[in-house]
Specification:
By secondary structure, this protein is an alpha+beta fold. The chain has two domains: 152 residues, Jelly Rolls (Sandwich), CATH 2.60.120; 107 residues, Arc Repressor Mutant, subunit A. Helices cover 38% and strands 22% of the residues. The protein is built from ten helices and eleven strands. It has a six-stranded antiparallel sheet with strand order 1-2-9-4-7-10. The chain is globular and about 50 Å long. The N and C termini lie close together (11 Å). The model has no long low-confidence stretch (mean pLDDT 92).
Length: 278
């Protein structure tokens, strides 16, 4: 990963409710490579190019293969690890990491429509915006353009689902102990209504989202090296048993917990999601 340099930038105050952060990646190498990206529970916007073309040739997951990647696109939730096969040559990526609910609150769409999908940005913006992003002379200009686009979306005052946003706060605050049942009791809402609203706002059912965030926290804890045994990590995060822990690590990382722990230093950038060289 020495040829890839990452910079994380905080979201402007006006967007902090809906944007996690901005991430800039510079790859200075000449060889092609494959990057495995694990689910992180957050959608986003990506601008990536090398001489006006996408540097990514294909994105392959256990259930699908995507080619013809746009240079500027919006992506939704994913629940599988994806291998991004990069072409030869250097490239730059500017990425907006959105909050889990932001497809709904900023774009006003049913987030489940973008689950396991990516679409060209021009479907949600003026056609000139992708062109302006590609013509910008540096990353600062690109971030300014993306910020203006998101602020304009925010000012349209699309409806927010405060029940779902409160449930997300509780999930993130109590990831080692939270269950859908306790969310229903706290929010005083029926399971059927809650699951429908959560899927529309976030893109996946609440139980699946909890599994993804629990996996994300498991990787973080493994990387700290503070636990002598993987069973202690599983216990700290409230997994029912070791088999559930193994299942989720394999499902979201494509590795066993033991293999993940042996290569924990190869996983990068927890705030914006974990990824590693395939």
């Amino acid at each position: 990963m020495r040829s890839i340099q990452f910079t994380l930038l905080p979201a402007p105050d006006m967007l902090k409710r809906d944007v996690e952060c901005f991430r800039i990646a510079h790859y200075s190498g000449e060889e092609g490579f494959a990057l495995t990206v694990s689910p992180n529970g957050m959608p986003g916007i990506v601008l990536q190019q090398h001489h006006g073309q996408s540097p990514v040739e294909t994105i392959i997951t256990p259930s699908r293969s995507t080619g013809s990647i746009p240079t500027v696109y919006i992506y939704g939730q994913t629940t599988e690890p994806g291998v991004m096969n990069h072409k030869k040559g250097p490239y730059t990526t500017v990425q907006v990491i959105l909050k889990p609910h932001a497809l709904h609150t900023l774009l006003g769409i049913n987030a489940s429509a973008l689950t396991h999908r990516l679409v060209d940005l021009h479907e949600f913006s003026a056609r000139s915006l992708p062109e302006q992003l590609l013509e910008a002379t540096n990353e600062q200009e690109q971030i300014a353009l993306l910020t203006s686009f998101l602020v304009a979306q925010l000012k349209q005052e699309k409806p927010r689902d405060t029940f779902v946003e409160e449930s997300l706060r509780l999930i993130h605050q109590h990831i080692g102990a939270i269950q859908v049942k306790s969310l229903l009791e706290h929010l005083n809402i029926s399971e059927r209504q809650f699951e429908r609203r959560f899927s529309q706002t976030v893109g996946v059912p609440p139980q699946l989202y909890i599994r993804v965030k629990r996996f994300h926290e498991a990787v973080r804890l493994i990387k700290t090296g503070q636990f002598e045994a993987l069973t202690a990590v599983a216990h700290a995060l409230g997994f029912h048993d070791q088999s559930h822990f193994i299942r989720d690590i394999k499902a979201f990382a494509g590795l066993t917990p033991t293999n993940l722990s042996h290569h924990a230093d190869d996983f990068h950038h927890g705030q914006a999601g974990y990824f590693y060289l395939a």
